[in-house]
Specification:
Rossmann fold; 23% strand; globular; ornithine cyclodeaminase, domain 1; homodimer; alpha/beta; 11 helices; eight-stranded parallel sheet
Chain lengths: 329, 329
């Protein structure tokens, strides 16, 4: 039997508090050597878009095995009126190999990315944090705020946002204020996001730095989830240089894909050794911040372990709550 | 909309004549550079079995993009009374990236492997061939006979079979005689398969040579689809040495996985250059046999392009014939 879960089913079953817990566990198992993230496969030519095949396995109590197939076709909205990014996740029974769950992967992708930032906030931000700023007000950004909210144990009170599109910022404000009951302030420039804030989230499509590192206040925690190519970055070298902790979702993945770290390494500003996987902080192998004046940076590029963990979560909840439909293949 | 196709649906939609045509086209597009078979991903620890993730893309008229997820868990029959090998194929729309079909992959795997042998027979066996021999009478072997039957344009008249299990050989005979209307003779030893035959198919689980190459008759075409690890093989070095043509489903895949070719190469009996992809024969880049006395060898290890082609075939037929059920994810 295969449990089929539509976008609506996933939306009904998934909440950020759970996602955060599962993503934290995935990072932990990666550090413990009980999880595996194989190099993903990218397929393009002769297709007009990109498909990424992202399998992964997480041992321990979670025992999750799944593959996400995600496609990025930039002309989809214009040509077919469908989203650029489409994704599905196939969950296998780790004990038999059988595919037992197939689910829409769009919301899961946004939620696990928000959860990654949430985990970073939980382990790296100042304990008294209650304000945040976010660059971009798009779909990904909304789940980022949710991630921060639960990463701070629902103590987030205020979010400042800046987006080039005024409409997007307005609908962001309406949605977030309703969903999380926090105060959202729309700012008129990116620079306005740097003051009076405990946490900065960068969730843009920019490939060049979006703020000047020298203006970041002491004690700030920064999470960057945009730019994910060796030559692209959201954070400048000054930000990286000023930070006391340079944390990665997964060190190996960031050293392969994250210009935010790769460019300063190539410039000789930091060494590779300075980059630490967040699993090392979660397991206590490495220390987190030791003062309220340090700047901490978290950079994550999507890795399959996040999807595998949240896919397993959704599948487990579906069985518990009797949601979705079964197909006998 | 995603078209869901169960094992029964696939069985209703798929026939060997079509499968052969699609697999031939896949091999052709590979040689033309319009198809891509990325290195598959293998996942094991901490799972108790193996999962292979096999995506591929084929351009040209076929325009197929799909991924097979296949698991091999040897203890499944004993522990859970389910098959060792389980597979599903996810078919994407090459123009949008969207997953539009999800189908059972077990029959497709057996059929595409039979079709590969069928294509080899079509291009490499003597034109007057009408008899074959097959080592093993298992599930894979049955589709091999079907592949040979259609590869010979339904001119196959007789099949000799040898299997250690008498019961399996008996049910093979009953099934094949009924399905293909040919004469099946059960032999009492493997050596009996070598005489009075035009085509030899090796479809065993053996990891060491199953017959002595010096006993193979001139003019025979051999297809080996068993052994698929660098140190395992069904064919001995004498067979390889005597053959005038050493053909691979895909040269690169055989050089990575097929001991039948790798071992003689390492022994210095043949050079890598002697191995030719069947696509080179199909497209006419290289010549096929030029006499009725040559021994020809075809070795194939499973490659995703075969699954992608046959998966697309099944999906297209399902839409044409209104088979399966649609899920709105």
């Amino acid at each position: 039997m295969v449990r089929i879960l539509t976008k609506d089913n996933v939306s009904e079953l998934l909440n950020m508090a759970d996602a955060l817990e599962y993503v934290e566990e995935a990072y932990k198992q990666l550090t413990l050597g009980n999880a595996l993230v194989p190099q993903r496969i990218a397929i393009t030519d002769p297709a007009p878009g990109l498909t990424l095949i992202m399998p992964g396995i997480i041992g321990g109590e979670m025992s999750a095995l799944a593959t996400k197939i995600v496609s990025v076709y930039k002309k989809n909205p214009e040509l077919y009126n469908i989203p650029t990014v489409l994704a599905k996740i196939m969950v296998q029974d780790i004990n038999t190999g059988d595919i037992v769950g197939i689910m829409d992967g769009s919301l899961i992708t946004a939620m696990r990315t928000g959860a990654a930032t949430g985990v970073s906030v939980k382990f790296l931000a100042r304990k008294d944090s209650n304000t945040m700023s976010i660059y971009s007000a798009g779909v990904q950004a909304r789940k980022q705020v949710s991630g921060v909210f639960y990463g701070l144990n629902q103590k987030l009170e205020k979010c400042k946002v800046y987006d080039l599109k005024k409409d997007t910022a307005e609908s962001f404000k309406t949605e977030i204020e309703k969903e999380l009951g926090i105060d959202v302030e729309i700012m008129s420039s990116g620079e306005d996001l740097l003051s009076n804030t405990d946490i900065i989230v960068a969730a843009t499509t920019s490939t060049t730095p979006i703020f000047a590192g020298e203006k970041v206040l002491e004690g700030t925690h920064i999470s960057s989830i945009g730019a994910h190519a060796p030559e692209a970055r959201e954070l400048d070298s000054t930000t990286i240089k000023r930070a006391s902790l340079l944390i990665a979702g997964l060190k190996e993945a960031c050293l392969a894909e994250a210009g935010d770290y790769i460019i300063p390494i190539n410039e000789g500003i930091i060494s590779k050794d300075a980059i630490i996987s967040i699993g090392d902080i979660i397991t206590g192998k490495k220390n987190s911040r030791t003062s309220d004046t340090e700047i901490t940076v978290f950079k994550s590029v999507g890795i399959s372990a996040q999807d595998v963990a949240v896919g397993k979560l959704v599948y487990d909840r579906a069985l518990q709550e009797g949601v979705g439909q079964d197909i006998d293949f």
